[in-house]
């Protein structure tokens, strides 16, 4: 396919795809587009723990929210305490530890405790059955100054802090995975801690909160953890959940609401009587990617092919996957797995987009796709580099280093704004 035809093909697909997608579809595509990171680490369902034993070692890490600091600065029941109660109500004997949750902790301090063998936390992580984590808000709160009923924020410092939060959480999760590869980890997003401020001030704060939650979510996905958003729940009836305008901490009712959001993903409840837990998995990451695609898409006109031994290609392809309404399927770079071929056939796909050049995905694999009857864009790496830049006014550009942490923490932003991303070797 010539470069001109490739441009026309992508443009044709773009014109066919409306940006007015439903929330359900948006969540589906986001989940599928992040397949590469999700399948990098195994998880354990609560239902499986029940089959193996009737006790659970629950470890809560984080800041004052994990510790249970209340709106009057007293110490009470935080969301981990309510989660421990949920475990008990569900029939578990609970060994609950929140002694490593420290009020005022930043993401850097949480990471330092995890890294330090002398703290004793590594032993607790190794023996844990479930871990929850919240960190990052204190990194930002120290940069927000309240003046004359308003606020002052330095955007340069905020951006640097957001990037550091993403790196610290991703690194923390990486160490947790080394110590306990199978433990399910749930990472909390943050809520608007200043709901009583004027609306114009709220508008000023919103991008910072969004950036924080996006950085935490991206780091969670990279680390094989589950991101738990609480912003929307805490905004509902905030006068009860955040009763003190002068204090960012919730009431116990607020903490209970947070715990409810955790429990929704920790033990999903079906519409029918009884409880069920769904696990999507395969023998390897390639088969798991096909399973996730099968669960999320009834059919798809286009599939995106990315190598599974490194995640940057799949990650920077997230906005494209969103726009083309396409699942991301993984390959070892040399050939398609049997499960991937079967999934392409089941989807009824007509087009395939390959992420990366021939060094990432071989010509042999491209020929396989052609043999399956797919119209192939042989290399998005080449196509995008040749495409006229005048068609875009904004780009996200990331310099590649040993670990692309910046790119990982930034990816939700181009997805949200439908901006293409470039991963470059050097400037």
Count of extended strands: 13
**Percent strand:** 5-15%
- Mean pLDDT over all positions: 78
Q: Separation of termini?
A: 30 Å
Q: What is the 3D form?
A: globular
* Spatial ordering of strands, largest sheet: 2-1-3-6-7
Helix count, DSSP H or I runs of 4 or more residues: 22
CATH fold-type name of the largest domain: Rossmann fold
Secondary-structure arrangement, i.e. CATH architecture of the largest domain: 3-Layer(aba) Sandwich
Class by alpha and beta content: alpha/beta
- Sheet of most strands: 5 strands, parallel
| CATH homologous superfamily label of the largest domain | SGNH hydrolase
**Domain module tally:** 2
Unreliably modeled segments: 9-27, 33-53, 269-278, 380-393, 395-419, 421-427
Level of helix content? 40-55%
Plain-language structure description:
InterPro entries: Bact_Sporulation_Assoc, Cell_wall-bd_2, SGNH_hydro, SGNH_hydro_sf. By secondary structure, this protein is α/β, with parallel strands linked by helices. It has two domains: 3-20 and 281-424, no CATH class; 46-266, Rossmann fold, CATH 3.40.50. It is built from 22 helices and 13 strands. The chain has helices at residues 3-16, 23-33, 35-38, 46-52, 64-67, 79-89, 107-115, 121-127, 137-141, 155-179, 199-222, 231-235, 238-241, 252-266, 285-296, 312-316, 318-324, 338-347, 363-371, 380-386, 405-410, 412-417, and strands at residues 55-62, 93-97, 130-134, 144-147, 150-153, 185-188, 226-228, 302-307, 328-331, 351-354, 375-377, 396-399, 421-424. The strands form four sheets. It has a five-stranded parallel beta sheet, sandwiched between helices. It has a four-stranded parallel beta sheet with strand order 9-8-10-11. Helix 2 packs antiparallel against helix 15 (285-296). It starts with a helix and ends with a strand.
